[in-house]
# Entry
Amino acid sequence: MRIHRHLWPPPGKEPGAIAAGLSYHGGVTFLQPKDGIVDRSGLPASGFIDPRGDNRAEIEALLEGAISSLLDFACRAAEYPPQPLAEEENAATPIAVRGTEEVGKSLPEEGGFAAELLARVEELTRNSMNVAHPRYMGHMDTVASTISMVGDLIASALNNNMLSLEMSPAFSRLEDHLLHQIALRFGLGAAAGGVMASGGTLANLQALTVARNQAFDCFDEGVVGADERPVILASEDAHVSLLKSAMLLGLGTKGLVPVRVDRHGRMEVEDLWRQIQLSRERGERPFCVVGVAGTTITGSIDPLEAIAAVAREEGLWFHVDAAFGGAAIFSNTHKHRLRGIDQADSITFNPQKWLYVAKTCAMVLFRRASILQDHYRLQAPYMREVEDFTNLGEISIQGTRRPDVLKLWLTISHFGRRGLEQLIDQSMELARSFAQRVDQRPWLRRISPTDVSIVCFEVVGDETSPEQWDTFSSRLQSHLMESGAAFFSLPRYHGRRVLKAVLLNPFTEESDLDEAFEAIDRFAAREGWSA
Ligand SMILES: *Cc1c(COP(=O)(O)O)cnc(C)c1O
# Structure
């Protein structure tokens, strides 16, 4: 266990007394107001920041201790494996819990030392998904921009509430302004705006709720007992949150009609036409079509322009789930991939993915922001009304909400569009290089079109059955993870096991791809796939 100089042993305290487990809390003094009437002797000295500054030294010691412990890990994250590993070989579960089995299994009667807690946090850290590793490529999860960590810390310190303007005067207006700007960048026009949400799932749910409320004018009466079943159409590769939304909206999971994808994982517009007709023949009423910009497994972008045309002709709401791919709008080189997104009625976008903002950070944007007033807004008696601004709590799903906008605005302002563009362009370059390496190996087959920085592939063999390919792909994935060579995830795609690499890490180099593919080649030779 590494002990922090600032915090251990606490000045003026006998190490012996500490070892004896006395209930000292890790600071110079207890938090005790000057007048001495209120008893706070049970609290640690650094328990809260004294608004008159009396415990500033203790607070600084705690924060410095925490930051130095964090940096001890973060500045050496490349030396730790991309995924924590079990100690024993061939452990049943490769996701380690070394030394942390007991954490959280009791509720302590007495408080403990901050230094000791930080040491426990170090154990948890070592058992955490290590997205900072340059060969961590498993999921749409990335390192967070440094400034977004700062934003989160400040947001926690101020502890405002996005529920109402009164409870977050600066941040409410910041969210309103910034989301309007982002909506403009997507081409949604001057009347556009949106609200933030804790993740893309909530953003999708809200977009589909507004779409339903408008289509059925059912704000008060709901859709229970409606003559025609309301249905949403989306590609069979769309994110599960759409299914969840259909279920939550009272449409049932059958209220989401799947549309076929082509061999690139993009929606087949011919099938969209057909599914709309079939749905109507079943007596249903399609009211919304979702286009995905960056599907969760293959990273495919649906033909948004063509889908927009169908939506217009058929009178459907057009939602674009751009949770991942939306970031491409910041790149002049790659924004063309989103062509048609400017015709959306609503967009989901997660800056917590390809825009490198710390989780959670997501939003739903609407072409006509006023639609939230007409088909969504609910006022609460505890929210003070103001003339020129709608409390964000009245137009979002969540009530109390963190000002995630702070770290978003900080990141966009710190990097600028050019910085973000470079991040996106570089990850596309790496994805292209990765895809080439897959294409060069006849015993690997690429499944994704590389519309965004995601490459999916599988192991194939001439004289073996697809069931065996599944086993090959799984074995390769485990081998790379357990040897620490690289971490790819292993999603199921159309019934098959595939490997998925998401190229996001700003510290991934060509040499990391060399290293990963050397490990892949060695394993393939050993298994006789490449012979
Ligand atoms: C990640 C993702 C979501 C869900 O976002 P969460 O933040 O995980 O709730 C929805 N749709 C797509 C396409 C995604 O990639």
